[in-house]
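hey all, quick one before standup. I had two proteins in the batch that finished overnight and I want to keep them in one place so we stop losing track of which output belongs to which input. First protein below, input sequence then structure tokens straight from the run.
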Amino acid sequence: MSKILVVDDAAFMRMRCTKMLSDSGFEVAEAADGNEALAKYRELKPDGVLLDITMPELDGLATLKELIKMDPGARVAMVTAMGQQSMVIEALKTGARDFIVKPFDADRVLAAVKKIME
């Protein structure tokens, strides 16, 4: 069973993603910010990460850069709101493998997770 780390400062979004992924057979861990995400990544060694771009303290791009430094093979899909195209492009250049635009549906989340796991 693949383990996915869901990182978002909004508890509702974490719960929504966790439910979608759990219902599809994934083991899911959650982090509320970038610092917690880095600690959980080290501890849990997840197979993939869904990472929100906009978070307080350590944002998604900074977190992505640290994840890639820690693990160059990290499999990350960014989660973004509409209108953050330049940040998405930077994230893809940094090493993210896909992105999901909010609001999203279960099919898109599962497609992104499958893509980063390939």
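OK second protein, same deal, sequence then tokens:
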Amino acid sequence: MLFSTKAEYGVRLMVELGRRTGADPENSPPVSLTAVAEAEALPLSYLEHLVAKLRMAGLVTSVRGAHGGYRIARPPEEITMIEVVQALEGPIAPMECFHPDSEGRVLCSHEADSHRACATKLLWTRVQGGVTRALAGTTLAELVEFAEAGPSVPLAAQPA
């Protein structure tokens, strides 16, 4: 499963805001998107589009004015990556025919074409569950800590 650059850049944006905002977002100075774009080598215009979605989802707040910018809306340990990815990408679905409903059940558009269960629904349900668990089990605080530890930290040493 591939996520788009929206998810990649949005997570990188959140990590940079998390690094600069700290554990107490309300008392931290806002960070300009220009500073984030420079630090992460990302296009400013794209970050403006992403931060609008993150703001609508309640994950970041904005401060207007000459010294304005953005900061995370909650402490980093309270923000999960599933919130970030879903705010940017929408529902997690490994296949186009795969649609979770409001009750958490998985619907497959192929099942409407026949009177049998979709032959691959079990597989894609497991894939969706694994991805969802990984995103829900990863906090912004973990990613900030990992980013600050530097590239020498082996991934195996990190909690799963």
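Flagging for whoever picks this up: The chain has a mean pLDDT of 85. The first helix runs from residue 5 to 21.
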